[in-house]
């Protein structure tokens, strides 16, 4: 089975070309692996070497370019004709010969009659290094370059029915993995054992399908470390009195549905229970506020008004648009739920809302992935919104 | 327990400063997460936002700079004094305000009296985007920039006793995971189930310690897909007659020990058995050739002479230096075992040697991670070198 119908890829290309026209671009060089997947269907762990998908107005299909040994992977996963799959030889990889993969890409842009045109590049995308840009410029002195970092990401913000279906499948996986993780946490249990249990559930998936690898590993900051959200598991054993935040995501065909919950080893102190109640009231107010026509900052405001009513002052980003992703991130880097972001919510956008409150370095985080429907917001996972304990 | 003694970090900084002197650099801006870990000890899944470790001659310690919410993670994992931990506010992240994290880094370089000096940047390192470089240049018009992409990587090529110890621990994990993976492959078993079994073993580790997440997910190309080495697992079920290549790595404190083996669902055809024998003879010849004083290309040549004696012509990179790593790669991008690489092997270098032979699109890959000792090469894992079958 193909992951999407060809017509869906064609619509994506059409929208991309419309934006290229607005920006007066002759060619678009897409290097973000998520955007490469979105336009061409390409899916492989090969983003550790330079690769790209190139869109030009003259061609109906984009062109995939990557390492020679990955061309078969492009044939297997993209919807592209053989003539649109190009690859460089292995002496371009970590080359001692002053060869760089972007030298080949520059030659290809020339062949596509775009070498002296206006070329869009994703200046701030993962894996588009400073060197990649420098080599493209050196090899194409007649070209002019435009920064098109989020051009495709803004198209991705609207999800199709098939994309939503994969995100719902990812939500089923996330529910299973969260339950398994909460069940595994306990006094004396090493962090890695909980991480193993979660990973296992993430890949085992459901009775009907397996799970893909998530773009971010499961995070489970605990104890003093709930204030260090991005440290990964260690050999440390959970102790009585540890708060533990579990943040994970199910993944299906690279589409994510992240979920976070907080648990406590032992009997949670009243302060933590109270904090959790504020977080729950806040996230529910923000979910209630989310609907087409409302801005991202208004959603954050609904959260903030709740916590302010309890005397808590903080202005944070509490969420972001997301969906398709590769390591190191599942976020789309476009709209954020935070003060100053006046992006208007529209039907079929999807966000991960992850607010939290830390007091005396001990925090509670509870998150939901939601889909903006015609009339409101629907969470993808169904999982109890409460402070758990072991 | 700290991952390394402070004296080990100090030696790393000393060697880095020596190379900075040779290159006449006033400051070095390290953005590769592996190099940040190597110099400062920093370990967190935060490389999806810009961050850096800065080395200057005047300071004994490097300076860590990252996102505000990750400063606690830097306090928890680095050996640095509080004054050397700096962080930017969250409005720099995917900013709608035309703020970029590198604006803050530029200001910090100014504060460190390096804003008008010669600054080394890792032009081709993961996560150092074209935009990051552009912003640094714009904000520091008086500075001159030098490309120092592999400066720290070439220091990392020599492993200390403690680093080797972590790689040996990773090898124990790799052995367990490989055995579990080989046992799990079978007719009708879905690929994701084998991936789950392997991941589980990688994180469960051994009786004495858990495993860290590997920088590359386990890969298990099978059937026709043994020719697409970087596709990840799917819902597909293994069929009788499938060759399956398993490539994985144990990981301990971010140090890797990769291992690859090939198995077959059912009775392997004679052609595959014969191919496996050539691969085994070839890798053993190359391991025998590896010792201090020999060049990388001579090691590859030992492999090539064996396969040529069976009438197989191919000139490939069959290995690379490796150790410490973060997604998307565990390779160090310095020395490669391939024609044209005249790097001389020295004691305490470590390589992953991963040769393979494909015939009619069906391949055999068998790999070993080895340590260059005073007199030869020692594989880190002890795992039978043969073609497996279910």
Automatic annotation (TrEMBL), chains A, B:
Domain of life: Archaea
Start and end residues of each Creatinase N-terminal domain: 12-157
Database matches in Pfam families: Creatinase_N (PF01321), Peptidase_M24 (PF00557)
Annotated TM spans: none
Domain Peptidase M24 intervals: 165-374
PANTHER family: AMINOPEPTIDASE, XAA-PRO AMINOPEPTIDASE P-RELATED
Protein's name in the database: Creatinase
């Amino acid at each position: 089975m193909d992951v999407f119908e060809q017509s869906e890829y064609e619509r994506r290309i059409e929208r991309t070309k419309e934006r290229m026209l607005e920006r007066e671009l002759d060619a678009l060089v897409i290097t973000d692996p998520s955007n490469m997947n979105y336009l061409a269907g390409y899916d492989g762990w090969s983003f550790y070497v330079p690769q790209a998908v190139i869109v030009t107005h003259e061609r109906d299909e984009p062109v995939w370019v990557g390492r020679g040994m990955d061309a078969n992977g492009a044939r297997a996963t993209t919807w592209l004709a053989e003539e649109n799959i190009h690859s460089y030889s292995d002496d371009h990889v970590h080359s001692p010969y002053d060869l760089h993969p972007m030298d080949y890409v520059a030659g290809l842009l020339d062949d596509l009659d775009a070498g002296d045109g206006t070329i869009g590049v994703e200046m701030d995308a993962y894996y588009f290094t400073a060197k990649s840009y420098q080599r493209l410029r050196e090899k194409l002195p007649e070209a002019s370059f435009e920064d098109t970092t989020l051009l495709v990401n803004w198209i991705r913000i609207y999800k199709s029915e098939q994309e939503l279906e994969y995100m719902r499948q990812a939500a089923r996986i996330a529910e299973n993995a969260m339950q398994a993780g909460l069940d595994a946490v306990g006094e004396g249990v090493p962090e890695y054992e909980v991480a193993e249990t979660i990973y296992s559930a993430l890949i085992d998936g459901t009775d009907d399908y397996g799970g893909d690898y998530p773009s971010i590993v499961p995070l489970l900051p605990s104890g003093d470390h709930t204030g260090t959200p991005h440290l990964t598991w260690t050999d440390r054993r959970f102790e009585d009195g540890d708060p533990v935040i579990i943040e994970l995501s199910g993944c299906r065909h690279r589409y994510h549905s992240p979920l976070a919950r907080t648990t406590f080893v032992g009997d949670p102190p009243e302060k933590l229970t109270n904090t959790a109640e504020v977080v729950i009231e806040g996230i529910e107010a923000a979910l209630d506020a989310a609907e087409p026509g409302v801005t991202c900052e208004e959603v954050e405001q609904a959260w903030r008004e709740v916590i302010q009513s309890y005397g808590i002052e903080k202005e944070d980003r509490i969420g972001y648009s997301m969906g398709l992703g590769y390591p190191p991130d599942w976020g789309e880097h476009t709209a954020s739920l935070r003060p100053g972001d006046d992006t208007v919510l529209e039907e079929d956008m999807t966000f991960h809302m992850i607010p939290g409150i830390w007091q005396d370095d001990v925090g509670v985080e509870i998150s939901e992935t939601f889909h903006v429907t015609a009339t409101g917001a629907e969470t993808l996972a169904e999982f109890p919104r409460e402070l758990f304990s072991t």
